[in-house]
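Quick log. Single chain, no ligands specified.
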Amino acid sequence: MEKNKSNKRNSNSNVNVKKKKMKTWKKVILIILLILTISVGVFAYKSHRNGGGLTGMLATVAGHDEQTKKNLGEFKCLILGISTDQDGVDLTDTIMVASYNPNTQKATLLSIPRDTYTGKNPAKATAYEKINALYSRKHRPDETLEAVNEITGLGIEYYVVVKTEALIKLVDVIGGVTFNVPIDMNYDDVTQDLHIHLKKGEQLLNGEQAEQLVRFRHNNDGTSYPEEYGDNDTGRMRTQRDFIMQVIKQTAKPENIFKIGQILDVAKEYVITNIDFNVAKDYIPYAVEFNTDNLLTATLPGENTNKNTAKTWVFVHDKEETEALIQELFYDRDKTEEELNQENQISGDNTTGNNTASTNSKTTSSTSKSNIKIEILNGSGVSQNLQKAVDDLEGAGYKVTRTGSTNVTSKTTIIDKKDVSQNLLTNIKEILEVGTIQESTSSSSKVNITIILGKDYN
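-> predicted structure:
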């Protein structure tokens, strides 16, 4: 009897202990849930204050606050694309200056021709002094960086050296890149084991085909890109820039976030850079939502010449035009329309005495379509309109040298910057089927005409 009572007391005691434990665990769980709720709420709040969406979440994870982006300046770096198919040679096929401003969400790609002369006396130029030979000498990207800074005056700190294998593997990792190949490409070089065979038109390119695309200069029969597109190296640089835009756009797709490990593995093995991770991580949260319509592209101005003792073809950049182009691409671009209008007004006041001569020359200067350099800025709000305008104008024989985007506007504007003849301005308006012609002559402008596409263009 006593034994049964004892067992009952023990049983009741065990039940009480279990109840106490249950109450304790409930409290712990409630506290954990409360902490999680507060944490999620704080994270969501901070993410919202950091811009919301994927950018806000990444910025919060990176430890950013509302002031972080405001304190970030424009990021500039030199991009070198290196061909590694010949042992020990490592020729630089692609040379570009890239910039990105997280506060304005604007970016720039400036191509540097691979034959750009880096010496002091063009009359005695040699192939050894071409900019694409600098890296192959000692495999030191800082020498090329120094040469580019000498040419542009940009004071770039960072470089990224991308080997051929990186492009091939990245394109394959993201499942290929859809791209509109501008012409049929057929070229074979057995010495480099390089074989390029691509058909014109939009298609999904794999890694091997991507390499063919960016390395193409001319066909086996000597033909190349059409003149209005940009012959040989000029055409290749344009194709490279356009392709990089598509790689950026298609790599940034949400589904590729799960492939970040593979992408980083490619970078570790085939990319050389002096960019510190702590610098990169501050820009990444804002770059993930970058719209490639805000990318402005251009090529270093100058001319190809072989007027030297060695009869070597080199590209000699035009110092004055380069200075004007750098000003437009990297400095004036972030100015407000009001600031630019004020500067143009001051410039106009200082050159009033030349207005008559300028007006009289409009009917005779810049009479050839092929001599007209056109910049198109897309303010229509529809990304496809930019390529349509480029195709229509180049199909008519004009040369579109720069493209980019601007704030959405209702009306299309054709701005004459270099005293273009009225006949050509009218012809451009007829091709676009819309547009108001304005005059804004600028001696420092790198283009003859700037076209701002409005919502009325379709």
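Residues 2-49 form the longest helix (48 residues).
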